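Hello K.,

You asked for the raw outputs rather than the summary table, so here they are, unedited. I folded two proteins back to back in the same session to keep the settings identical. This is the first:
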Amino acid sequence: MALGCWLCRAPSTSECILGELAEKYDYGPGTRMEEFCEVFQVKEKATGHSFSCKRFRKRDGRRVREIARNEAHMLKMIKHPNVLQLVDSFETRTEYILITEYATGKEVFEWLLELGRYSEQDASVVLHQVLTAVSHLHSLGIVHRDLKLETLMYHTRNGDTNIVLTDFHLAKMEGRRIREPCGTPEYLEGSSNKLCRLLFSAPEVVAKKKYGRPVDCWAVGVIMYILLSGNPPFYVECDDHANHDKSLYRQILAGNYEFDSPYWDEISDAAKDLVSKLLEVNQEHRMTAKEALAHEWTCGKAALDKDIKSGVCAQMKRNFAKRRWKKAFQVTTVVKHLMGNQRGTNERKRRTDVEMETEGETRSTDEEEAVGPEQKSQMSGLEEEEEKVCTKNQH
C-alpha cells in the first residue's frame, strides 16, 4: 500500500500487501539493526535500482509504532537533495515497512578518517550542506531533534556527492514549543544511545524546558566543533556514571566549553565565531540555520586551507571510535536475539493484534549483555584496523 493510502485509510490484508511488496522488490543481503527497526537492502524488479528497507515490528510496542508512522509522515513532506527520500511504504498486520533511497556512501565520521588531507574548507563544505538541509526543514516547521555525526551520510561512495540527513523518526512539527525530551524517555535516561544524544543536546532540552528549531542549530554547532577539533565541546573524565552525567549536564546548561590548545590553535577566528554563535545557551539569541548559511566561514570565504587531518583524526579516534564499536556489538546482540527467535515467527503471526500488542508492551530485551571472548577478539581486530587506516592517512 502506497504512503498516501497508508495515511488516509485502514490497511488492506497482510497477504495482499506482502504480495505487492514481493512483486515490486527483491530482498538483498546485509540485514542490520538500528535503534527501532531492522534494515535491509532491496532491489526494485522493474528497474534494478537498489533501495533501503526499514521494517518496524508492531509487536515491539506502541512507541515503535508511533515512530514508524511519524517517520513516514515527515519524509512525505520533505523533498530536498540533502535529505534521504521516501520512495514507498507499506503496512501489514504485524509491520510498518518504509522504502527509502539507498545511501551507498560512508558516514561523515568514516569519510574524514579515510581522507588523505583535510582542512577547514572541507569541513565548511560539509556544514554548508547540513545547514542547507536544516534550513529547509525549519522553513517547513520541522525540527529534526536527533542531529549527530551518525545521521550524516554521503549519498554515494564518491566523496564529492551530496551529504544527506537520515533518521527522521524523532522529527516533530514545531507548532507550539516542544517540551518532551526528544520524544523518548531514553533520550536523557539509560540506553545505548544516551551518551551520544546527550552530547548533542541543547541546554533547553537538558533543562526540560520548551524548545523548538534552535535545538537543531545547537546540534550543528556541536558537529562543527567535533569536525574541527576531533573533540566534543562538553566532556567529563569520570568513571562514575551518575557523577559523569551530572557534570555533563552542568557543562551544557552553562555553555561551558573552550577552544582548547593545541587543538584550536590553527583554527580560524571565523570558525570560532560561528561555533560560538551556534552554541549560544539562550535559544532566543542562538544563530538560526539561515543566518549560519550566510556566515563568511560557511560560505567558504574565511575557511582556511591548512591541513588539520592528523590532529582531528587522532582525537576523533580517541573520543568516538570505542563508542561506535560498542554500538556495533549491541547491534550484533540484537541480531543474534532475533535469529534465535526466528523459529517462533510463524506462531507469532497467528496471534491476534491484541495479543501481539500486549506482548510488545510487556516484553523486555537485554541489549546491554556482557561482551564475550569472541566479541572481544572482534573488537581488537576493529581497533587494529582503525589504527592502520588512521596511521596510513597521516603518512
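The second followed immediately with the same parameters:
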Amino acid sequence: MVAEFNVYCAICCCPLGGSCEVGSTNPWHLKLRRARVARRTYSRRTGSLYYETDEEEEDEKEERLSKMPWLRETAEADVDEDTASVNSDDYDHSYDPDVISPEDLSWLNTVFALGIAHRKPGPRTYMLCDCYYDDRNRVYIHDTDPDDSDEQSRYFAYGVSDLTDPPVFPVHWECIVLLSRAIGISSVASIQKNVLYDVMLDLADFSCLNLSYGDITGPDQDWQCIPGEEYSVVCPTLEFDMGHQIIVDFEAGLFESQKPLELGNKVIKDPFTNMPYDVIYLILQYLPGDSIMALNRASWAILTLTRSNSFWKNRLAGDMVWLWELQQYFESPESSRVRNYKSLYLWLDKKTQPLYGLTGTFMGIANRRRIWGPCTELAERYHRKLHGSLQ
C-alpha cells in the first residue's frame, strides 16, 4: 500500500487549510515549548548539532544562556521536574499561543487551484478557481456546474492521481497576489494562466514544486507545527505600518552618529584602491548587504565608496523590492526623518530575516521575504516562457 501524503501551496509550501495547531496555554506547556525553542535557536545560530533526545548538562546550558542572555528566562525550564505525564504534542508539535493565534491562520483557508478544466468540450480552458482541499491531494473546485458529478469537480494536485487528467496546483490567494507583484503585473486577473500553469508543471514534485522555500521544516507527510517556525504561517501580505516602526523601533535604537574616521593615509595596501569606481559598483551590485559590510571592514576604498546615503538608499530599493511599504514610505514627507540609510538598511535586513525563533511585529514581513524567493524564480520562468511563446 502506498503511503498517503498531504500536498502544500505551490508558492509558499504551507498547509491548505486547517492543519495548524495552536498549543495549550498551560504554563508548564509554555515553559517546555519555549525552552525547546531556545535550545534549537542556540544550536542553529552556533552551527552545533542538537538532538531532541540529548540531556543537556548544566555547564552546557549555562554556556548557551551566557551567549544568548535574552533567551535565559524562556529557556530555564526545570529539567528535574517529572515530564513523563506531559503529552509532547501539547508543547512540541504546536505553535506558541502567545506568538500566533487561530485568527492569524485564517488566510491559509482561502485556496485557489490553477489548472485545466477537465471533461469540457472544445479547446483547453485554463482556470484559477476558488477551491477547497480535501486532504491527501484531492481538490474540489467551487465554481462548477451544479449538475456536475463529484468526479467532474474533483481534481488531483501535483499529478498524484489515478486519473489521466492533468493535475492542478493549489495556491493561497495571498500567495498568488504576492506572485503577481513579483511578475510585475497589477492584479491576479492579468496573469496568463496557461503560461504559469506550464511553468508549474515543469517544476511539479510530489507535494509541492521543486523550488527552495527557505529554512522551514513544517512540510512533511503531514504538516508539522514546529514551535519556533510560527512566522512561516503568518500572512505575507498583512498591512505593515513602516512609518510607525521606524519611529518607535529604528530611531529609538539609534545613537548619536559620530564623525567618520579618516584612516586613508594609514592604509598600506588595498587592491580596490586603483580599481575604477564603475567596476567596483558593478561588483557590489552582485553582493548581498552582509557581504558589502564584510568588504567595508577589509577595504578602506570600499568603505569610502559606500558611505553615502544615496548608495544605501539604492540598495534598499533594489534589495528589498518585496518591502513595498518601504518604497511608499520613501515617497511620503515622513521619510525626511531618516538621516542614516546605511543604518536603516542593516536594521531592516536584520529585522526581516526569516529565522527560526522569530517573533513579533516583523513575522509577516519575514515570511513575505521567504516566499519572495520562490516567487522570484517563478516570475523569471514565467517571463521566459511568455516571451518564448510570443516569438
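The mean pLDDT is 82.

Happy to rerun anything if the numbers look odd on your end.

Regards,
P.
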